[in-house]
Structure formats: structure tokens, C-alpha cells
Amino acid sequence: MRAPCKKNVNSKKIANCTITMPPSIKIFSPATVANVACGFDVLGFALNSPGDEISIALNDSGSLELHDATPYKLPLSPEKNVAAVALQSMLNALQSHQGFTITFLSKIMPGSGVGSSAASSAAGVFGANELLGRPFTRRQLVEFAMQGEKVASGSAHADNVSPALMGGFTLVRSYAPLDVIPIPSPPIFAAVVHPQIEVRTSDSRKILRQEVSIKKAVEQWGNVAGLVAGLFTSDYDLISRSLHDVIVEPVRALLIPEFYAIKQAAIDAGALGCSISGSGPSMFALSRDEATAHKVAQAMRYGFDRAGIESHTFVSPINKEGVRVV
């Protein structure tokens, strides 16, 4: 039986239990890399930076109030904002009419391919869950955060929101029912390069083929299994051999100038593998150590420089914690 909660002058009655609440909390939600080459819509990992920061507080209005302090002119209608949609789905599950005020303080650039919508969706449900006394586990929050992703891309995929909420590498084994599995990994550093072009997730999904050959499917299954096995066993060579996408990358690469030249430059600089981050246009490469990752990032950035495209780079270890209270 659940122990009774202690009353406090700054307390709130939630689900037959009085819980002490802070006036507001600040949340950091990390950028993520989805697909991880071969794992379209099922694999992803979290980064230490960049990320979203939001402030979230309870209010007595019974509604979701949104404020934007970022430079990106985010939608502030609760029906169009990914964080609000995700949060509302959680409130619906609780049959709650609790109001919240969310202020977006800093934001991953939308359309960058490192989980901008997922970071906001994860931040909204995680922050609200904290203020309500944690009625849901992080894994349970994934299903609510997916509803924010549906607003952004038209598809309720979990390969970004799962690592954003749970940290590390995650595998979405099944969507019906949702079954998300955390994957342990050895020390790995990611180099991510974001060219200053925009590729919308919804547009990037539209160009994908709806059917693939059995031959390609079998090759892809082998790579997914090999990558998961390599992460579990800390086998860097197996990880490297498995970081190949024969289904999605060949199509989406057409949207990224000089993709194959830049990918080869990353491999030549020592990367275990290189591919598109999510739907692009960002590219990621995995390396065994931080020094190599910096060399890889420099090589990739130089490739975009030669193509006359400005780009931003960052190097990060795998974020094992995921979204957190700052």
C-alpha cells in the first residue's frame, strides 16, 4: 500500500495524496540521434549536448499556458506545440485537469535532425511527471512523448523520445504494444555535424520507399542484430561492421550535399561508422575515444566547407541519464 503523503503549506492534492510541490522546476532534455544507421525507427541514443531547457510550473487555470523565450518562434497553441500535446496525453491518461505553465528557455534548432521535437516532448512530460509526484516511470512516459512526435512528423515514432527520456542507447522492440529496451554500451563518443540547411522530418519520411527487397531486408536485419550485439559485448569491430544502412540512407542521402564524400572523410579520420542523424540533415559518426571524435568532426566540417555550406559541429559522449531536473 502506498504510504500517505505529508501535508505542507505549499502542497497540492493529487490523486488522493498531498504532495509537496516546488513553485517551478527547470528541465534539461538532450538531443538524440535516431536510427543509428541501420535501425530505422527502432534505435537511438542520447547526447550530453545540445538540448532543450524549459521551465515548468503548476497553475490553477486548468489549461496549458506556453511562453517562448527562444529565437525560433515556436507554436504556442497547445494543439500544435509538441510538448503540450505530449503533456496533454499524459493528463488524459490520469484523467486530470491540472494546469501547467511551460516556458521554453533554449531550444535545439528545429529541423536539424538531432531530435528537436523529441527533446521538447520528453521535457514536457518529464517535468509534469516530476511535479505530480512521479505517477509514471520514464519508460511509461515514452508513449505520451510519442504523441508530440506525431504532431511534428505525422508518425508517433519512439526512436528519439526513448533515449531522451531513458538515456543511453535504446531499442524499440515493438510498437504494438510498446516495448522499449535500454542497451548497455562501452565508452563511445559521437561527432555530429549540422549543415545549415533544413530537412523537415515530415518531408524526409515522404520520400522513403514503402517496399524493400527481401535481400536488402535480410542485410539490414543482420546489421541491426550485429550492432546491438556489439554494444552489449563492447565489441568495437562488430559495431563498426554493423553501422551500415542499405534501406533508408541511400534515399535520404540525396537531400544532403556531398554526403558520401563526407562519410568517407569520417571513416578515414578513424570513425567506427558514419550515417545520417535521424531524418537529417545532420550527420553523426561514432568513435572509440574523444580525441578521434574531434578529428572526425573536423574532417566532416571540412567536407561541408568545401561544398560552400556552413556547418556546426559538436562532440559528445553518450548521455546515460537522459532528461533531468537542472
List the SSEs and their pairings.
Elements: E1 11-14, E2 17-20, E3 25-34, E4 43-59, E5 64-68, H1 82-94, E6 99-106, H2 116-131, H3 138-153, H4 161-166, E7 169-175, E8 178-183, E9 189-195, H5 201-206, H6 214-233, H7 236-242, H8 249-252, H9 259-268, E10 273-276, E11 283-287, H10 290-306, E12 311-317, E13 324-325
What does this structure look like?
With 326 residues, the chain is of the alpha+beta class. It has 2 domains: 11-183 and 321-325, Ribosomal Protein S5, domain 2; 189-317, 2-Layer Sandwich (Alpha-Beta Plaits), CATH 3.30.70. It is 35% helix and 26% strand. The chain has 10 helices and 13 strands. The protein has helices at residues 82-94, 116-131, 138-153, 161-166, 201-206, 214-233, 236-242, 249-252, 259-268, 290-306, and strands spanning 11-14, 17-20, 25-34, 43-59, 64-68, 99-106, 169-175, 178-183, 189-195, 273-276, 283-287, 311-317, 324-325. Strands 3, 4, 5, 6, 7, 8 and 13 form a 7-stranded mixed beta sheet that branches. Strand 5 (64-68), helix 1 and strand 6 (99-106) form a beta-alpha-beta unit. It is globular, with a radius of gyration of 20 Å.
